[in-house]
Amino acid sequence: MSALDKLKHQKPGADATPAVAAQSAARDGADKRKGLIVRLNTPAWAQLKTLAIEHELSAHDLLIEGINLIFQKYEKPPIASSPGKAGRPATKR
Known about the structure:
Number of helices: 4
Number of strands: 0
Shape: elongated
Distance between the termini: 58 Å
Structural class: mainly alpha
Radius of gyration: 19 Å
Strand content: under 5%
Number of domains: 2
Oligomer: single chain
Helix content: 40-55%
Order of helices and strands: HHHH
């Protein structure tokens, strides 16, 4: 059997390193997160990127912070978090 045939018959993740296995698990739904695309006009996008640089945060972290502020405005708990930062606010200030 050729190497390619072996790969075709190999169970996904069988010989994976822990990091690769974790990525595979996240793809398989173990992460329990949903994605959302936000379309911004160019000035808003530039302002978001500028804020991220000024505060040494990612644009994603700022968006998570904004989502939590929306939740609080509507009297809901601020439960949004970035990957690997569960339960912690997205601010660095």
